[in-house]
Design goal:
It is built from six helices and 18 strands. By secondary structure, the protein is α/β, with parallel strands linked by helices. A five-stranded mixed β-barrel has the order 12-13-15-18-14. A two-stranded antiparallel sheet has the order 1-8. The chain has a two-stranded antiparallel sheet with strand order 4-5.
Length: about 300
C-alpha cells in the first residue's frame, strides 16, 4: 500500500491506556485503504463521522494488527459521549478523505438533522494545496454538518518520514483546515478547531499560522492523571465532539451553526500560555516560541 502523508496530531506525552467500556466493545483490526469504513460504534440517532489512522507503520509496512491512533481517539470520544446518543462511522484517513469518500454514504439530503465530523488528522501537502481540497470544502459546505478538527501540536514541523525525521511544510495545520479557515463561503461558521490544555495548565498547539484559526479555536483540557488517554490535540477534538453530541442530543433541532454557537457560549476567554518550539533545520535543537494568547478555553 502506498504511504499516505497525514498530520498526526499526537505528541509523546504521558499516555495511559484504558480499555473500552463493555457497552460498545471495539475491534482493533481493520483495513488500510483510504476511505474504508473501519466500523460503526453505537446505535444512536446522531451521526458522528471520524476519520483517523487505524494502523501503525512498522518497518515500512502499514500494520493493522494492533491498537492504533484511531482506536485510542475513539475511546476518548466514548469516555465523554452519553451512551445511546450517537452512531459513529469510523473511516481510514484524514479529514479530506472523510469529506471526499465517507459521509455522503450516510447523508443523502442537505437539510437532514445536524451531524458531526470529529477529525484528529488531516492531509499534508509540502509545497502547495491541490485544487481538490477546495472541492472538498465546497462539498462539505452544502451539508448541515459541524466539523470539529484538531490543529497540529506544538513542536511539529511537518511530515514525519519513515526514519522519523521532520520535513517542513508550508501548511502546518493541514490543507483542509487551511482552506476552511481562509474560505469566504461561510463554512467557518460550521467549524471548530481544537487545541489542547495540558494538566499543568499550559496550552499546546503549533503557533505557526495559528492566527488563521484563532478566533474559531477552543482549547480543551485533558489530564492523564484523571484517566484521559493522552494530552494532545488528537484527543481534545473527540472530547469536544462528544460534548457537541451530548448538546445536540438534548436539542436535535439545532443547526450546525447554532450548535457551534451553543458550544462557544460554554467557553471563557482567557490568557493562556501556549507552548511551542521549532526545529526547522532538523538538528534536534529546538527554539522556544512560547506565547501568551487570549483564547477560548473549555474545561469539562
Amino acid at each position: 500500500m502506498k504511504k499516505t502523508n497525514l498530520i498526526l496530531h499526537i505528541i509523546p506525552l504521558i499516555i495511559v491506556l484504558i480499555s473500552c467500556t463493555e457497552k460498545e466493545e471495539m475491534t482493533t483490526q481493520h483495513s488500510a485503504s483510504d476511505g474504508d469504513i473501519i466500523g460503526v460504534v453505537g446505535d444512536g440517532d446522531i451521526l458522528v463521522f471520524k476519520g483517523d489512522l487505524y494502523g501503525n507503520w512498522v518497518d515500512g509496512v502499514y500494520d493493522v494488527s494492533e491498537e492504533a491512533h484511531g482506536d485510542r481517539t475513539t475511546q476518548t470520544f466514548q469516555k465523554y459521549a452519553d451512551e445511546g446518543t450517537y452512531q459513529m462511522i469510523e473511516s481510514e484517513g484524514g479529514l479530506g478523505i472523510v469529506i471526499d469518500v465517507v459521509f455522503e454514504q450516510y447523508i443523502t439530503s442537505t437539510d437532514e438533522q445536524t451531524s458531526i465530523i470529529s477529525s484528529s488528522a488531516d492531509g499534508k501537502e509540502v509545497y502547495e494545496i491541490p485544487e481538490v481540497y477546495n472541492d472538498y470544502v465546497t462539498k462539505l459546505n452544502k451539508y448541515n454538518i459541524l466539523t470539529i478538527s484538531s490543529l497540529e501540536n506544538q513542536g511539529v514541523d511537518g511530515i514525519i518520514d519513515e526514519d522519523g525525521n521532520a520535513i517542513a511544510s508550508l501548511h502546518p495545520h493541514g490543507p483542509t483546515n487551511t482552506i476552511i479557515a481562509t474560505s469566504n463561503t461561510g463554512i467557518i461558521d460550521k467549524t471548530i478547531f481544537v487545541g489542547v490544555i495540558y494538566r499543568w495548565g499550559n496550552g499546546g498547539v503549533d503557533l505557526e499560522e495559528f492566527e488563521l484559526f484563532e478566533d474559531h479555536t477552543i482549547f480543551v483540557k485533558l489530564n492523564t492523571e484523571n484517566g484521559d488517554i493522552a494530552e494532545s490535540t488528537s484527543h481534545a477534538a473527540p472530547k469536544l465532539a462528544a460534548l457537541a453530541t451530548n448538546i445536540l442530543a438534548k436539542n436535535k433541532n439545532l443547526t450546525a451553526e447554532e450548535l457551534k454557537v451553543e458550544i462557544f457560549k460554554l467557553c471563557t476567554k482567557q490568557d493562556l500560555t501556549i507552548q511551542d518550539s521549532k526545529d526547522d533545520d532538523n538538528d534536534q535543537e529546538y527554539e522556544d516560541n512560547t506565547q501568551v494568547r487570549n483564547v477560548y478555553v473549555l474545561e469539562f
